[in-house]
Design brief:
alpha/beta; 2 domains; two-stranded antiparallel ribbon
Length: 469
């Protein structure tokens, strides 16, 4: 017995001595040092590769665009101005002067094509900025001391940034610094190339959030022109008020249905909120000389609404889609936003004779927010007809939202959303059901928009008031 204990103690002492021995400790330190130096070298190599590509490409573009410099410099000197030098904040929060042509020296076409910034090629040659990177901000605009912004200064600013692309696609819902941090953490040469390619269609979409009216008529339907944050804030405020409110979305398909169905158009027009949804509405607004602040679609709005409802009185009721889908969405909410009360859920497969019992179930649940996924126009008609009886404060038609959050169908990748082609992914997923909606419906919608624009111009108007197509 005693010899066994002595053996165990000796083995333990030997193991402890081996662990504390200088050799293994040195090996561990060397291994950690090698890992750290490997990471540093990798980052340096990637940064150097990007710098070389930036330099060579800037030199090539400078040679190609040199003929455009002469007339612009001549026009600038004639107007009594020179190259504009704007103080910007670059890598490691160091300031530099960014060059650009003066507005007086830039013709309209050059301004549209953003060629006023041609002299910024000099900054790229000097290493002040890159082609791809966070936006070059002015001093004091984004302090490197702020936790949310400091990561953007780890890399050179760029002429094209992730935030700019998302603004153009009207999906820049978060703070700019969050997009910058996302870019910095996942930066690769291939990712930069993808971002550059996504910037090409983004140019055609026009500006992002702009000074625009709070509402305007589009293809005969009144749109409440809001950002995502404003829409969520409005619905949360309604959640605590006694009045009842209907929220609807207008996309290209809904606009086509409303054109054929005046009653449905009337429902959309008297809804308390009708929000512009999809790149089609963005393009239509731009064609008619209007600015849509953001693409406020239900799929992106849902998690933000859940986050804002956490801890508030009332509850959420989910109605619609196939059996089991609404329940799965309720499970998703419980997992990601546990402080949101799920008042109830039910699928959308019920007969007309069961409608009263469904309404009674919603009212008895005490829910204050109701999401109805019955498809357009049925969901909006259902809300318009039964809102008062349900007792909820906010009722919103959400289309196919439940399919995404239940896990039944994956959503389009972020890069497809950034170039406004989420509808292509939906067509790929369900070609048999979606081909008519997208391939024929999109063309029909654009035809009506073009017709409306022609009528506006023929009538000498700059707005589309009173036009129903």
């Amino acid at each position: 017995m005693g010899s066994t204990l002595g053996l165990d103690r000796r083995q333990a002492a030997e193991e402890l001595q081996q662990r504390l021995a200088l050799g293994p400790r040195r090996k561990n330190r060397l291994r950690r040092a090698l890992l750290a130096s490997t990471w540093t070298v990798t980052v340096a190599v990637l940064g150097s590769a990007k710098r070389i590509i930036d330099f060579c490409l800037a030199l090539l573009l400078l040679a190609i665009t040199l003929p455009a410099w002469t007339p612009m410099l001549f026009a600038a000197s004639k107007a009594g101005s020179r190259l504009v030098r704007t103080v910007r904040v670059g890598r490691w929060a160091q300031t530099f002067q960014e060059y650009s042509f003066p507005i007086a020296g830039a013709g309209r076409i050059l301004r549209v094509l953003h060629l006023r910034r041609l002299p910024a090629l000099i900054n790229i040659l000097r290493g002040d900025i890159s082609f791809i990177g966070p936006r070059a901000v002015t001093p004091g605009e984004m302090s490197p001391r702020d936790r949310i912004t400091y990561r953007r200064y780890d890399v050179r600013p760029g002429l094209i940034c992730l935030w700019w692309v998302r603004q153009r696609a009207n999906i820049a819902y978060e703070h700019e610094a969050l997009s910058d941090a996302e870019y910095v953490s996942g930066q690769t040469l291939l990712g930069d190339l993808g971002l550059a390619l996504r910037a090409i269609p983004a140019v055609m979409y026009g500006h992002g959030v702009a000074n625009a009216p709070d509402e305007f008529p589009l293809v005969g339907i009144r749109i409440h022109n809001m950002t995502m944050a404003e829409a969520v804030e409005t619905m949360v405020a309604w959640n605590g008020q006694p009045e009842q409110h209907q929220v609807a979305f207008l996309n290209a398909d809904c606009a086509n249905i409303a054109w054929r169905d005046p009653q449905y158009a009337a429902i959309l027009n008297r809804a308390d909120l009708t929000l512009g949804d999809g790149i089609g509405i963005k393009v239509a607004a731009k064609a008619l000389g209007l600015q849509l602040k953001q693409n406020v679609n239900g799929t992106d709005l849902f998690p933000r609404l859940c986050d804002a409802l956490q801890g508030l009185a009332g509850g959420l009721f989910l109605l619609g889609s196939r059996p089991g889908i609404a329940e799965a969405v309720a499970g998703w909410v419980a997992k990601h936003y546990p402080a949101v009360k799920i008042a109830g859920f039910r699928d959308g497969y019920f007969a007309p004779a069961e409608e009263k019992s469904v309404i009674h179930e919603i009212r008895a649940s005490g829910a204050t927010v109701l999401l109805v996924a019955l498809g357009a126009p049925h969901q909006d008609r259902w809300i318009d007809r039964n809102l008062a009886a349900t007792g909820v404060r906010v009722a919103m038609g959400v289309g196919g939202l439940f399919d995404f959050y239940s896990g039944r169908m994956p959503r389009a990748p972020q890069w497809l959303r950034e170039i406004g082609l989420e509808w292509v992914y939906r067509l790929y997923q369900e070609p048999g059901r979606m081909w008519r909606r997208y391939l024929i419906g999109n063309v029909t919608f654009l035809y009506h928009v073009a017709l409306q624009r022609f009528r506006n111009q023929a009538g000498g108007r700059n707005t589309n008031k009173g036009i129903a197509i």
